[in-house]
Write the structure tokens for this entry.
Amino acid sequence: MTTIALVGAGAVGTRAARQLVDTPGIKRLLIADRSRAQARDLADRVGGEAVSLSADGLMGANAVALAIPSSAAARLAKKIISTGVPVATATDDETGTAALFALNGLAKKNSTQILVGCALLPGLGDVLARHGANALERADEVQAARVGAAGPTCAASVRRSRREPAREWSNGEWQTSHRSGAQLVWFPEPIGEQVCEQVSLGVENLRRAVPEATFVLSRAGEAPLRRSSFSFRGRRETGDLWAGVRIEVLGWQGSARASIVYGAVEHPAAVAATVLAVATARLAGLLPAVKLEQTKPGAWSLGEAIDPTSFLAELAERGVRVAVFEGVAGSR
């Protein structure tokens, strides 16, 4: 009997819970949240079991999914992997992912894995980047862009990243970008073109997913409305927004320069929840059709650990589909 623990009953956690209870092989779902009432409410709705938000409360799980702010995710992940239980996190900000990757030694010591950044970008974007690199004879550049946020915490991290200096990976080292201004980026419909600015979000995970790339950058933009509506206070509601990711991998096919571009559009929390649920189920030994590229203990990005083709096939079965852009090699 496979038991999964889910921490976080917000926008991503709620949808991840539904994905997990529908996954073959999961017989028991433990749900924890800092609001015990919220955990109980979600557990009642999906047929799970509300437990305390502590390492003891999560005991007995074969794998743990963390859909909580990065400040809490690293602390809790440290406690969980110390018991030898694998963890998947939906953390997407640069500081949070760095803290989780820093648990690499602890994960190795306890013979377990932690998958860092199982969301939109990082997450789905890493897998698409690896998928594109696999299709080229030699990949040397990755350019990523995203719009949308899965919840208030995610939205705050995107806004913060757009204010801070952006870092990019160039010729084997980190560099602070000195580029100014924004750039139009094309996403699949119904999003279309969006103004995006260079950020640091996702660059580390992309670099890990495509280690042969000598140049990696990421951009982010505001999420477009799913419909023309605002809250009564005049603010856009997260649930009314689209989320999109666009990944361009450049390299060589023979002597010709080549470019492969993938894109995906969905409800922001739905994408992150689906990616998180599939990653967690695979850590627990379920979904054998999703092949693992990395079985060694440690902290890994999703693009490092998961076979892209089989992972994307599982996402498609769950309603998250990827579009392929036709075109020629792009430029910086």
Notes: The longest strand covers residues 243-253. Confidence is low (pLDDT under 50) at residues 227-239, 327-331. The CA atoms of residues 95 and 121 lie 14 Å apart. The longest helix spans residues 268-283.
